[in-house]
Amino acid sequence: MSLIEALNWRYATKKMNGQAVPQEKVDQILEAARLAPSSSGLQPFKVIVVTDPALKQELLPHSFGQSQIVDASHVLVFAAWDNYTEERIDEAFNRTNAERGVPAEATADYVARLKIMYLPREAEINFEHAARQAYISFGTAIAEAALLKVDATPMEGFDNVKYDEILNLGAQGLKSVTVLPLGYRDEANDWLVGLKKVRQSKENFIIQK
């Protein structure tokens, strides 16, 4: 199946049937998310994988009662750095340099420019930038899930503060951004399953210059 075919197949599943997604497919989706591009290669976010039924039940009332949270096999929570710090930038480039076998001096000027750009900014501005990087990974995970014929429901409708509290994200310097339940559609009980996919026309969507 091509990516276009997969994207035509997928939809924002409203009701899942509780069937478990094979771990190898979940691993592929997470690997796609890990390999997604990010600004300066910093990857300023993490993916929290929730499978514990009790924890999913705890998250449910803070997810506007959306049943996919408890019916999904795995719930992926994309959480971004709450701020850019000197330590975080150094850690990212120390790892990159070590894996590429290059000296720190090779990237020193670039790292210095990043610090000049990021470190003076307010934490909220830096968090918003990090969150945009998380969204790139989020979209990549959605596409990979579709290619594997795993249903996924992109969610912004949840109480970020409560998620952060329940998942202890603040202690890790993270703030939740988006949620992606993975599972399989309940075709008999999902009102959206048979409806035509509607998007803007190509003429309206694409602006040629």
Automatic annotation (TrEMBL):
Keyword flag Chloroplast: no
Cross-referenced SUPFAM superfamilies: FMN-dependent nitroreductase-like
InterPro entries: NfsB-like, Nitroreductase, Nitroreductase-like
Cofactors that this protein relies on: FMN
Kinase found in the keyword field: no
Highest taxon above the source species: Bacteria
Residue span(s) of domain Nitroreductase: 8-184
Gene3D superfamilies per record: NADH Oxidase (3.40.109.10)
Keywords carried by this UniProt record: Flavoprotein, FMN, NADP, Oxidoreductase
Family per record: Belongs to the nitroreductase family.
UniProt protein name: NAD(P)H-dependent oxidoreductase
Organism listed in the record: Pedobacter ureilyticus
Lineage, top ranks: Bacteria, Pseudomonadati, Bacteroidota, Sphingobacteriia, Sphingobacteriales
